[in-house]
Write a structure and sequence with these properties.
CATH class: Mainly Beta
Protein name: Bacterial stress protein
Radius of gyration: 16 Å
Number of strands: 14
Distance between the termini: 38 Å
InterPro entries: Stress/Tellurium_Resist (IPR051324), TerD (IPR003325)
Organism: Crocosphaera subtropica (strain ATCC 51142 / BH68)
CATH architecture: Sandwich
Largest sheet: 6 strands, mixed
CATH superfamily: sav2460 like domains
Strand content: 35-45%
Helix content: under 10%
Strand order of the largest sheet: 1-12-11-3-9-8
Structural class: mainly beta
Number of helices: 3
CATH topology: Lipoxygenase-1
Length: 197
């Protein structure tokens, strides 16, 4: 049974899924309905973009190629594959998925930071306060069992346009996961990554 993580909680992937090598990080969300003059309506589509930042032990990106997102779907090592952009968040389950082969992650990359941002958030006047049922989950691809899930409460992120969701990191040679859930105000992925160079 999957663990429902609380903000800041850490788990050992070795303990929760012995022998784990390939994982899928799934992200999902729905857009909260707004009340208008003529009842309920949905505003502009929310385009949430999931990305992975591959950080060194110093917490830095070595290059732009260590950011995996809709414009760079594959890491050069073959360890990380983004399965593509979902422009609306429509549908059930995961809206975006990222595959990670933990055995191929280069030794100098010790932290995989999973982030999400709202595309054109400022222009569209959108924030995570208008998003509901947002979650990040980690699935063991050898048996398709969910290892852990972290659900976000939209109201607490009013005004935030980016989110650091979770981290998968190496600690003494062992992979672990931490639920982060930190909202940031950033106009796009570039702004979110600036502090990591």
């Amino acid at each position: 049974m999957a663990i429902n993580l609380k903000k800041g909680q850490r788990i050992s992937l070795k303990k929760e899924a012995p022998g784990l090598t390939n994982v899928m990080c799934g992200l999902g969300w729905d857009v909260a309905e707004s009340k208008g003059l003529f009842g309920l309506f949905k505003g502009n589509d929310f385009d949430l973009d999931a990305s992975v930042l591959c950080l060194t032990s110093k917490g830095k990106l070595k290059s732009k190629s260590d950011v995996i997102y809709f414009g760079n779907l594959n890491h050069g090592s073959g360890a990380i594959t983004h399965l593509g952009d979902n422009l609306t968040g429509e549908g059930q389950g995961d809206d975006e998925q990222i595959l990670v082969d933990l055995t191929k992650v280069p030794d100098d990359i010790v932290r995989l930071v999973f982030v999400v941002n709202i595309y054109k958030a400022r222009q569209r006047q959108q924030s995570f306060g208008q998003v509901k049922n947002a979650f990040v989950r980690l699935v063991n691809l050898s048996n398709n069992k969910e290892i852990a899930r972290y659900s976000l409460l939209g109201e607490e992120y009013e005004g935030k346009t980016g989110m650091i969701l979770a981290e998968v990191y190496r600690d003494d040679g062992e992979w672990k996961m931490q639920a982060v859930g930190t909202g940031v105000m950033a106009n796009g992925l570039q702004e979110m990554t600036n502090e990591y160079y």
